[in-house]
Design goal:
Elements: H1 2-16, E1 21-30, H2 33-40, E2 49-53, E3 59-68, H3 71-81, E4 88-89
Antiparallel strand pairs: 1-3, 1-4, 2-3
Length: 90
């Protein structure tokens, strides 16, 4: 099932964007320094992040705009991110 999901995403990315391209990642994670660190580690050190906490402070939304070399590079980030407990990938 996971492989099928990423195959479809790869196709959509290849059809809709020209590579390299600026790509926006969005994640929602439980409000935890450990989880924020895990998301940050998915990207190079010079990456800029935007954070927004939920009203009750239980969750943090993270937006990342990053120049990506290919659809496969985007999928690689998503595959690594899915292993962070409690993450929601938008």
């Amino acid at each position: 099932m996971e492989k099928e999901k990423y195959t479809k995403l790869r196709y959509q990315l290849m059809e809709s964007l020209t590579w390299p391209s600026l790509y926006m990642f969005k994640f929602i994670i439980p409000n935890s320094d450990e989880k924020v660190k895990a998301v940050k580690e998915l990207f190079p050190a010079d990456t800029e992040f935007a954070f927004k906490t939920s009203k009750d402070l239980k969750f943090i939304g993270i937006t990342v705009k990053k120049e990506m070399e290919s659809a496969d590079a985007v999928i690689d980030i998503y595959m690594k991110a899915q292993h962070i407990e409690g993450i929601m990938i938008l």
